[in-house]
């Protein structure tokens, strides 16, 4: 078996290592974030002192946004399949701009697509507009998380319009953000996927070529060539989620007019005071309030209620006003019992909300 390389998670280092493994000449690697906490998380998940499982090209750590990080094994074939299917869906290979960290799957796949397309990726840096101006490809792409898109729509809308497509992943794309992008003439395509699926594998509700979808009592199942090989040194956990070639995600969904609609995570329905509460529905309602700039709704263990519904909001609305606002369209029992006002939601480097940090702050 090969020995795992730990490399700096910088664009240059990751691009060099990717070029080698995609050519079939490099040994497996795991990119390390520059911050100590992130590097420690990757070391914990990647376990560099043990041999690497056969067929592995890259070990990526999950974000750990909702629990313990895991080392995800991605093969050379999975990386190529994901990049090729993405280009096929978008209209052909092109040049990519990188506004994401390359030690997470979204950033890594931007570099993978660049290698396969034979184009030079452009780094976004601190000035997105200036970076976009350096793009020279006949077809131009980028990918980012919803928070980035929202910020760039305010500060760099002209730059966004120069891209043939902008893939939006890492989190659900709010309906109002989708509408803002369309109004601004920006081609933003919501993507669903995760590290285990080699990045986004469902674009605008339609799976990429080679990917199959199914539902098991609402649980989203995914099958196809972009799937990971397993979790690093965790055969029991791998066996739980990979069955007969299908990856059993932790997400719930439904098919609407032939397209996948992601409803939320399996644990997004909690029992509070004997009532089933769908947290994403509460969150979506809060985001409609004019005084709420951003929000996340979580369930917190509670002696009295079993699970207490807690809303973390960016803004200064009064608690009772928010409860009444939620109760206008949803059951009164779904209204958050606790409202925590924040200047900004804590974010991980992956662009996801740091849910664990929020939970730790209220327990």
CATH superfamily label of the largest domain: ANL, N-terminal domain
Strand order of the largest sheet: 6-5-7-8-9-10-11
Strand content: 25-35%
Overall pLDDT level: 93
**Which CATH-level-2 architecture of the largest domain?**
3-Layer(aba) Sandwich
Number of domains: 2
| Count of DSSP-assigned helices | 12
Characterise this structure:
The protein is α/β, with parallel strands linked by helices and 363 residues long. The protein folds into two domains: 5-263, 3-Layer(aba) Sandwich (Rossmann fold), CATH 3.40.50.12780; 273-362, GMP Synthetase, Chain A, domain 3, CATH 3.30.300.30. It is 31% helix and 31% strand. It has helices at 11-22, 36-46, 76-90, 105-117, 128-133, 146-155, 157-160, 175-183, 235-241, 279-286, 319-327, 355-362, and strands spanning 5-8, 29-32, 56-61, 71-75, 95-98, 122-123, 140-144, 165-168, 188-194, 199-203, 206-207, 212-216, 219-223, 230-231, 242-243, 246-256, 259-265, 269-272, 275-278, 292-302, 306-315, 338-342. The strands form six sheets. The protein has a seven-stranded mixed beta sheet, with helices on both faces. Strands 12, 13, 15, 16 and 17 form a five-stranded antiparallel beta sheet that branches. Strand 20 (292-302) and strand 21 (306-315) form a beta hairpin. Helix 1 crosses helix 4 (105-117) and helix 3 packs across helix 4. It is globular, with a radius of gyration of 21 Å. The mean pLDDT is 93.
């Amino acid at each position: 078996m090969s020995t795992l390389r730990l490399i700096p998670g910088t664009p240059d280092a990751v691009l060099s290592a990717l070029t080698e493994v995609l050519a079939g000449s490099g040994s497996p690697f795991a990119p390390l974030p520059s911050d100590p906490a992130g590097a420690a998380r990757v070391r914990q998940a990647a376990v560099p002192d043990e041999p690497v499982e056969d067929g592995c090209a890259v070990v990526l750590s999950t974000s750990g946004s909702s629990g313990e990080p895991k080392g995800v094994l991605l093969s050379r074939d999975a990386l190529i399949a994901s990049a090729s299917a993405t280009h096929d869906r978008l209209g052909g290979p092109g040049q990519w701009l990188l506004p994401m960290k390359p030690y997470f799957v979204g950033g890594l796949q931007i570099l993978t697509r660049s290698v396969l397309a034979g184009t030079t990726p452009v780094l976004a840096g601190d000035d997105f507009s200036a970076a976009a101006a350096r793009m020279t490809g006949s077809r131009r792409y980028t990918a980012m998380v919803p928070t980035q898109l929202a910020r760039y729509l305010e500060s760099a809308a002209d730059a966004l319009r120069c891209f043939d497509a902008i893939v939006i992943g890492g989190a659900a794309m709010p309906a109002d953000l989708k509408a803002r992008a369309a109004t601004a003439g920006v081609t933003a395509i919501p993507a669903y996927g995760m590290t285990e699926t080699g990045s986004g594998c469902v674009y605008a509700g339609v799976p990429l070529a080679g990917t199959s979808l199914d539902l098991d009592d609402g649980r989203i199942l995914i099958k196809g060539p972009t799937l990971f090989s397993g979790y690093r040194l965790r055969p029991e956990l791998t066996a739980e989620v990979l069955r007969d070639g299908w990856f059993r995600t932790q997400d719930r969904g439904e098919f609407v007019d032939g397209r996948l609609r992601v409803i939320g995570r399996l644990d997004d329905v909690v029992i509070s005071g004997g009532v089933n509460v769908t947290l994403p529905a509460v969150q979506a309602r809060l985001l409609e309030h004019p005084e709420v700039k951003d929000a996340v709704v979580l369930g917190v263990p509670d002696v009295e209620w079993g699970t207490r519904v807690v809303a973390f909001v960016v803004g200064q609305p009064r608690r009772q006003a928010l409860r009444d606002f939620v109760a206008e369209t949803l059951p009164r029992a779904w209204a958050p019992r606790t409202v925590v006002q924040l200047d900004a939601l804590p974010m991980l480097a992956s662009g996801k909300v740091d849910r664990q940090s929020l939970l730790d702050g209220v327990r």
